User: Fold this.
Amino acid sequence: MRQTARLAGVGFAVLYFCSAIRADTVQGGIIAFRADVIVKQNATLEVREEITLDNAEKYYRYGFIRNLPIDSDDRWDPKYVGAYQRDNGIRVTILEVTQDGRPIRYEQGQGYGYSQLRIGAKNVPLDAAEHRYVIRYSVTGALKLGASADTLYWNAIGHERDVPVEEAILSVHLPAGVSASDAAVEPRVAGRGVSSPRRAETELERVDDGAGTVTYRATHVAPRQSLSLAVTWPAGFVHVSKFSLVSGDQWLLAAPGLLFLFYLVAWFRIGPEPKPGTVVTSYEPPDGLSAAAVRYAVTTGSDGRTFAAVIAALAVRECLRVEPQDGKYKLSRLMSDRETEAKLAPEEKRVLRMVFEDGAVIELTPAMDERNNAQNTRYVAAIQQELSKRLDGLYFTNHVEVIALGVLATFVAALWLAFTAQGRDASGATFFTTWILLAGLITGLVFEIGFLPACKMATRSGTGWVKLLPGTAALAAFTSVIVYMLLELAKGISITFSTMLAALLLINLIWGPQLKRRTPQGRQILDQIAGFQLFLEKVEKDRLERLNSAGEAPEMLDDNLPYAIALEVREAWGDHLAQTFLIAGVMR
Assistant:
């Protein structure tokens, strides 16, 4: 009797001990984990994870955190994923997160914490109750596509985890047309590397889960260990789209598409320019137009050559004397009479006052020097102000209101998309977007209205290339920074986002100049100017060339010289003077 009681006591003790072990196993972490990975024919994955927790508060003291198995620490096996990279190029989009069947708030990490998903209240310990979480997300960049076979390596639970898993199931749904018998499978349940093999209590078995599906079940998975499958099937069932680099968020490209459509509609509504008329040789410039005004009517702006034409006009009227000195120009104020100065064009009067505001003699030097560049640009800006007051809207229209609306729409759309962007690291999206648009528009305008005309002038004259070096370096520096930021956005968000930004920038820069239109009066003036330019090239050019040598004081100053400079009729002295101010600011 006493022996029976002893046996009964031992039995109860064993049962109690086993129950305690079972309770600790089942109720001390993740009691069930299932991941279904659907391989789509466009090389993307759709993953559904169902995770059941019970009595897991000691493991999740700061809330439930799920590290998605997408970073290089979890995708560690070089046999299937290649060499280790901090950023392996895998991107995910969260589709759904629920707790006990109801949607719940979540927060996804950024940068190298991109795989981290905080679910529910942040920094609040998880309660001891049982909870079932469902996480759905799409994945790009996880497949390894080969010439003869394609491979998916998926480490379902991930190693960055201190929680035991009672039961884990990983099911890979093969691409349409591939059966389970066509696939080679290498299952593994263990820790990372060969130094962390499967534990003795961990079991692994294959489960029949239907045709076209490879499913494995593991039990008693220890912390820092995971269930992974490497599944290989014949190539030809998965096809990467030609637009795979922009897959998933192609809708972002609607923004530049709509902007292009806006400018296209505006372009049609504005209509074409008046057609050129018959060019008749004219021996005089158009009435009332100075040399600077003639150039403004032709180029719709002012530049260093415009300034040179103004200086030549003042010299012709004996308001100043020009003396070349080793590539520089010494300007001396002459005592001209009031009647002569009264006949000067407004821009010529203003330049005359500005040039000699600090004394009766001034030296102008090539614009490579920062101080002289700023000084010469100031003169060009003054000329531009005077000309635009008289001629804007008279000879051409810029339709600034249309361009302003397009630029405003660009900033509103781009900043909203940046503010709402999701990706591996969207933290700097708003700043980068603002900087790219501002710097890009300014750099593009400088190139279009300043640098490009200067290059044309240097090409035409065959000299002045050295003076373009500072401008080239500045444009290259800004362009490099813009490209760098676009690449960072491509890595942090997506290449589609960067493409969208670059497209918005280019559309504004390309369409802006296309909206400028000549008025009928402007077309008429251009025809008159063309006739006068024909006279200068056929009759006056050789005479001016012989008498006015480059770098020397001109022997002949007549009324046609400023116009020859303004209209780029090749003439040595005027070309040399214009080259002195080659990179002076161009104004439009």
In short: The chain has three domains: 2-240, 250-258+429-514, 302-398+516-580.
